[in-house]
Write a structure and sequence with these properties.
This is ATP-dependent DNA helicase. With 392 residues, this protein is of the alpha/beta class. The chain has 15 helices and eight strands. The chain has three domains: 2-53, no CATH class; 109-317, Rossmann fold (3-Layer(aba) Sandwich), CATH 3.40.50.300; 335-385, no CATH class. Helices cover 43% and strands 8% of the residues. A hairpin with an 8-residue loop joins β1 (9-10) and β2 (19-20).
Length: 392
């Protein structure tokens, strides 16, 4: 082979002359292999002397000094290090961003610490439960997937708790992946508005669930599922907010998609991914859904019944966590939450509503009970804002 390289010749189609193999190879190497000699020399020195610990200092000494000063400054924190009852909070491996196109953790360490301190007893108990599960996973154990339903009335801190769970779970589970920026915790909600409020994604966009799907054809093509799998292959926890707006059909699609992404059999619920559902069934129900298709209705004849009833552990928050002014209104909402249609309001509740009602700024979103009221308000705003009108 070496003789062919040094002495061999070849003849190309359409060329009458013979060409040297050596000259062709050398020319191609010069075109496609840049700095080959330098790389070989560098590899030789690395094998003989080992890595140069001061390489950055030699390349750019001033930048290296600044980098080391930044590291030293980062070790000094202005946060009061009290006993937070949150072990490992100051772990240097914490990550504030999951670094994918799907989602980013928006809170920094300094922002999350006050939130963690403000958790009440029940909120902390839920956080520790999720946190203990994450620690087991990070230690190489295989605990059973979590199926947790966090519920509570208005002002009980459900969204507040979601952020704390997301931050802690992401920070701990980052240790289970080769790339700490892999997505391990995914925040979702059934509607765009609900997803926006928690800085998450809609269930449909995050998991590739389309209107054309049916229970008999719930899987994606191989091309689409492979693309989704590259983003979700390390997913450990799925958080679904506003679970009251999710029906059994949509939850079945979630199960099927996660099972397909994780390449698990049908009996492996949600593909082995832990699911934390958050919401209040006293609030908005799923759109255009029969009562028997709502999650809380126990219907053994429905194949999707096993995905909710008897599976999810319930954790209820009942302490109002809002400020005093908002707290009074939140308490009123919780009283209305359990009233019957024909049950009258108390005199105190009527006075509270009267006190809360007022004229807000024009640019604020106004909600009315009838289309006629909406039309009247829109016309008034158009007359105020538009100085010139054109009619056909």
């Amino acid at each position: 082979m070496r003789n062919f390289f040094t002495c061999g010749t070849v003849k190309f189609e359409g060329d009458n002359e013979l060409s040297s193999v050596r000259e062709i190879v050398v020319k191609n190497m010069s075109d496609f292999v840049k700095d080959g000699h330098d790389l070989e020399e560098a590899e030789k020195q690395l094998n003989e002397k080992g890595p140069n610990e001061d390489a950055w200092c030699e390349l750019c000494p001033e930048a290296e000094v600044n980098r080391r000063e930044c590291i030293d400054e980062g070790k000094v924190t202005s946060v009061i290090e009290e006993d937070l009852s949150i072990p490992d909070l100051n772990n240097e491996k914490s990550s504030s961003s999951v670094g994918t196109n799907l989602l980013s953790v928006s809170l920094t360490k300094n922002e999350i610490i006050p939130r963690l301190r403000s958790l009440n007893v029940k909120q902390r108990r839920i956080l520790y439960k999720v946190r203990d599960w994450c620690i087991q996973k990070s230690n190489g154990k295989t605990p059973e997937p979590l199926h947790l339903f966090i519920t509570g009335g208005a002002g009980t801190g459900k969204s507040h708790l979601i952020k704390c769970i997301q931050y802690e779970a992401t920070r701990i589970l980052a240790q289970t992946s080769e790339n700490p920026d892999d997505l391990t915790v995914l925040l979702t909600a059934p509607t765009g508005t609900a997803a926006f409020n928690i800085h998450g994604l809609t269930i449909h966009s995050a998991l590739g669930i389309f209107k054309t799907l049916s229970p008999d054809h719930a899987t994606l093509s191989e091309d689409k599922i492979n693309s989704l799998r590259t983003k979700l292959e390390n997913l450990q926890i799925l958080i679904i907010d506003e679970i009251s707006m999710v029906n059994k059909k949509l939850l079945f699609f979630v199960h099927e998609r996660l099972r397909q992404v994780k390449k698990r059999p049908d009996k492996c619920l949600f593909g082995g991914v832990s699911v934390i559902a958050v919401g209040d069934f006293y609030q908005l129900p799923p759109v255009k859904t029969k009562r028997v298709d709502k999650l809380y209705v126990d219907d053994p004849s429905n194949p999707s019944n096993q995905l909710w009833n008897g599976l999810f552990e319930i954790a209820e928050l009942d302490e109002i966590m809002r400020q005093r002014e908002d707290g009074l209104f939140a308490e009123l909402l919780n009283r209305l939450r359990v009233k019957q249609k024909n049950e009258s309001l108390t005199l105190f509740d009527k006075r509270t509503l009267t006190h809360c009602f007022g004229d807000g700024p024009d640019e604020a979103l106004h909600i009315y009970s009838t289309n006629a009221e909406v039309d009247n308000f829109n016309k008034e705003m158009i007359m105020k804002l538009c100085t010139e009108f054109k009619t056909n």
